[in-house]
Design goal:
2 copies of one chain form a homodimer. By secondary structure, chain A is an alpha/beta fold. The first copy, chain A, has helices spanning about 5-15, 20-25, 35-45, 50-60, 75-90, 105-115, 165-175, 190-195, 200-210, 225-235, 250-265, 300-310; strands spanning about 65-70, 95-100, 120-125, 145-150, 160, 185, 215-220, 245-250, 275, 295, 320, 325. A 6-stranded parallel β-sheet of chain A has the order 2-1-3-4-5-11, sandwiched between helices. Chain A binds a DNA duplex through helix 2 and helix 4.
Chain lengths: ~325, ~325
DNA sequence: ACCCCTATTGCACCCGGTAGCAAGCTCGAC
DNA sequence: GTCGAGCTTGCTACCGGGTGCAATAGGGGT
């Protein structure tokens, strides 16, 4: 397996210096048309194209952005990743997808991101403890970080998220108008839950409506199975008369799991016996089999804003955007 | 924003040469314990860690692997990406997720992968024309390519896939035993369809059972909506008596869309009036609302095999693995 | 005290580009 | 024919580390 051709080789073939070769590949560089043609012909036959690694080293920009993800169970990630990669690629940036798990935690990944000189690091809805980002090994020269789709108050780490307060206010208004009065809330993994702030606002807005005490269900993880398990536990432990009449789940995946259990295992009608609401508006929730009422984050706008910050077209600062309630028959 | 510390700076701080610093960070290098300690202490205070970009340039390995994906509508991609990133990271390799779309096609992405010196390129179920990979600009020094989860006969580009022939034979056996005799097949995007070979084998095995003529439905893309649309068109165009009794869809997503339409819009019972089979065994298919009969690819084994090839622990060669039928109530 | 062996350290050169300066060349104006 | 402006081109220095060899130092044996 032969190695790639280098600028020097092309230079020899074209009978010019390597700097002239490089100019031929630098848009806007000062080079005579004749020599550019000569170089391009030589490059063509030698099959040359510039080595971006070397360029990155010299220019100190890699045009690569790291995206941390720790929750692959939520199908919502996929369309967002699609938009994100597409928008980044449109700006000439590639996406390095980093799986945060117990073998490869945030600190590990951040140090790696630092060593690889990524142009930016995006924490896409990952559950991290705030101290982590304060690690003293980060700092000077560390790539700018952004938190996408969750809240974060860390100075210097702007969060781009959906306004949870408005969202929950809209949801509670909607549910209250529909006549529900015994609300429940299913939260996922504890660390992230607080960061999302959904539970907090949910309880608050019910209180303002004069409804005290939101019943809390807890799911181990953010997955349909965990949602199902949590709902099963709750329904088994309560008698039909004493149950909540509407269950808001921290995301759609939990909601779908809960809905399946309510309908199939307990024979409950949705929404007559138990209404269900989710969050994220995943494609599946809209399927006729579920018709899940949900709340859609303005992911495209969020991504656009963040990419603009990464490319420097916009000042990096915290942004909260307004989402949209998607009422369907489940509540 | 100060720049990162370099080996030279650490060297000055520790009173040694930069090569000694580098040795302190090179496992197995010949260095006295005393100087290593000195260096590590200096590195600690200066907050130094090696620049992997520079290292990559010098060693000619980036420890980055590109993964091409062009179909973000299929939720099946997500768990596979999870496993893939995790396995690669366990080997010290990061994953560059490249979104192949009409603004950024295979050729574009391949040239980019070449310029960035990735250690390998994985075409994860993407629809490409074989000629593309024969582009003469690729070749010498180009990172090794692998095709994951689809078939490919390109010399030098090993495919790691599920054995479609065995899979379809198992599926047809199962359906035949269940008594179905009027099979239909819904294919997705034309380019990929042929590569998957599912339609071909499906028709073949029915023929061997003495059943000629598989009714073909075509979906525009691989998405639930496209599957729904295709099923709707077919059901509208046929009278109840003349319809197929089992519909095999090229993947689960199409199947779920088709199932929704059959049940909700045409009031058909599944499987009584129309049985449905998918492929991939996505999590949602197992939900009580669908109970979709499907076929599971041995994705973990496929990934393990591929990663072993990438790391050189195993010879790169085409591999087909046997999957597993997952019978549920939809057929 | 001397010699030799080996662990350790320093060095020149290289990876493949980029930046900015200065020399060389071309061409038009006078 | 001469001169200077401006376009071209080459060169030095540098990005931050890696490789292989040569030089040095320390220790053991005698």
């Amino acid at each position: 397996m032969r190695k790639r051709a280098t600028a020097k080789e092309v230079a020899e073939a074209a009978g010019v210096s390597k700097w002239t070769v490089i100019r031929a590949f630098t848009p806007g560089a000062s080079i005579a048309d004749a020599s550019r043609q000569k170089v391009l012909r030589a490059a063509e036959t030698l099959n040359y194209s510039p080595n971006l690694l070397a360029r990155s080293l010299a220019t100190n920009t890699t045009h690569q952005v790291a995206v941390f993800v720790d929750d692959f169970a939520n199908p919502h990630k996929l369309p967002v990743l699609e938009t994100l990669t597409e928008r980044l690629q449109a700006e000439g940036l590639l996406t390095v997808l980093i799986n945060i798990n117990r073998h490869f935690d945030h600190v590990h990944a951040l140090i790696n991101a630092d060593q690889r000189q990524f142009d930016a690091v995006i924490l896409f809805g990952t559950a991290f403890r705030e101290e982590t980002l304060g690690d003293r090994r980060l700092g000077r020269g560390f790539p700018p970080m952004f938190v996408l789709a969750r809240d974060s108050q860390i100075p210097g780490v702007p969060a781009i998220a959906c306004d949870a307060e408005i969202a929950l206010s809209e949801i509670v208004d909607y549910l209250f108008d529909k006549g529900y009065r015994r609300p429940g809330f299913m939260a996922g993994a504890r660390t992230l839950s607080t960061a999302l702030g959904r539970r907090h606002h949910y309880a608050n807005f019910w209180r303002r409506k004069g409804v005290e005490g939101v019943t809390e269900l807890a799911a181990e993880r953010y997955s349909a199975l965990a949602g199902a398990e949590s709902a099963r536990t709750y329904l088994n432990a309560t008698s039909p008369g004493s149950r909540i009449d509407v269950l808001m789940c921290e995301n759609d995946i939990l909601a779908l799991g809960a809905m399946d259990v309510a309908r199939r295992e307990f024979g409950l009608g949705v929404p007559q016996d138990l209404a269900v609401v989710g969050f994220d508006n995943i494609e599946l929730g809209g399927a006729p089999a579920y018709e899940l009422t949900s709340y859609e984050q303005p992911t495209d706008e969020m991504i656009n804003a963040m990419v603009a910050m990464i490319t420097g077209k916009r000042d990096a600062e915290m942004v909260v955007m307004r989402g949209r309630l998607v009422p369907r028959s489940s509540a």
